[in-house]
Amino acid sequence: MAILAVGIGAGTSLYSLIDACLIRTSITYPVVDRWEVVRAYLPHQKTFVNFLSVPEILEVKQLHELFEEVGAVHGDSFTLTRGEYPERILGTRVTANAITMTQTAPILGRIFREEEDRPGGPRVTVLSYELWQRRFFG
Q1: What is the pTM of this model?
Q2: Can you tell me the mean pLDDT for 110-137?
Q3: Cα–Cα distance measured from residue 71 to residue 111, given in angstroms and rounded to the nearest whole number
Q4: Distance between CA 122 and CA 138 in Å, rounded?
Q5: Cβ within 8 Å of residue 40, ≥6 positions away
Q6: Hey, how many other C-beta atoms are within 10 angstroms of the C-beta on 36?
Q7: φ and ψ at 77, to 5 degrees?
Q8: 67: which residues sit within 8 A by CB, 6+ positions away?
Q9: Please, what sign has the CA dihedral across residues 72, 77, 78, 84?
Q10: Using alpha carbons only, how large is the chain's radius of gyration in Å?
């Protein structure tokens, strides 16, 4: 029962994180039934963690016979300093392919490019529709 609860919780967390980083507010993902969450096991702590290191992600990407594509998402918070007052906002750090893996597209603008997914690459943000309207006046 506990394994089932953890599996459902992990799937729900992934869905929520990806949903938070997309521009649309109410969409369905045509491929959600094909997503899997890969977690790391820490034997010295006898626990699982919901994130992988960069070398671990690269190792999972090599498992072509198991996964069509591998992307990473990590929930985070940021301080937006533009405007009259700073604001703490919830966001998600993602690999360049994470949004395309949902088979959705932004309402306006573009998603991340591969060169932006490298160390030292340009820092790029995709805004939610709500944040775009509220803080950037659409």
Answers
A1: 0.62
A2: 87
A3: 14
A4: 23
A5: 48, 49, 51, 52, 53, 56
A6: 11
A7: -130, 150
A8: 36, 60, 61
A9: positive
A10: 16
